[in-house]
Amino acid sequence: MMPIMKSTSSKPTAPSRKEASHERIVEVAARAIRRSGYGGTGVADIMKEAGLTHGGFYAHFDSRDALLAEAGDRAGAESVALAARVAAAAPAGQALQAIMQAYLSPEHIATIETGCPVAALGSEMPRQAPEVRRAATIHIKEMIDLFARQLPDWGQPQAHEHAMALVCALIGTTMMARAVDDPNLSGALCAATLKQFTPAVV
């Protein structure tokens, strides 16, 4: 039997209290910006929801924009990771359809707080600080690349263009489906987009 050697370096390092607090603030803010928008997300409210004092904010962030950028980065990474998991779990050749159906599902339309941040915040992004827009841009590119990799002609210029059109269609449809006050119309908008684009991805 092989002896077990004790080594402190092999043990996972527990996050410090400051690191744990920082993680909690970003997690809360990533939900808050999608729920209330950039403009409706205040530092005091985020710190309170995270169970921390307002005065401790600047121990973690240089500015509100720095927090918004990190929160946006977290939200974008979560969205891309979820789409990648949906693609990985789909039957062979059906990954793109699975992502589209999940994105335009009633569940995603209803859960703005945990859904795609671009669909939740797209109209506000042009007016944000450069670091906030940069975080959004990185994950938009990642989502386009993820879609392109699912296409039969992946690697060709037209695949990237096709992926951009698909991502734009999904985001625009989600924004409209959330905007209307008629549940039937909301569902019809999603169904129409799926009908129009699904034949092109088979």
Tell me, briefly, the overall form: globular
**Helix content range:** 55-70%
Query: What distance lies between the first and last C-alpha atoms, to the nearest angstrom?
Result: 54 Å
Radius of gyration, rounded? 20 Å
Task: Give the class from helix and strand content and strand pairing.
Answer: mainly alpha
Strand content: under 5%
Number of helices: 9
CATH C-level class of one domain: Mainly Alpha
CATH topology of one domain: the name is Tetracycline Repressor, domain 2
Which residues sit in consecutive blocks of at least 5 with pLDDT less than 50?
1-9
The CATH homologous superfamily of one domain is called Tetracycline Repressor, domain 2
CATH architectural group of one domain: Orthogonal Bundle
SSE succession: HHHHHHHHH
**Overall pLDDT confidence:** 90
Number of extended strands? 0
Biggest beta sheet attributes: none
Can you characterise this structure?
The protein is mostly helical and 202 residues long. The protein has a domain at 63-201: Tetracycline Repressor, domain 2. It contains nine helices and no strands. Helix 3 (64-89) runs parallel beside helix 7 (130-149). The longest helix has 26 residues, at 64-89. The N and C termini lie far apart (54 Å). The model is unreliable at 1-9 (pLDDT under 50).
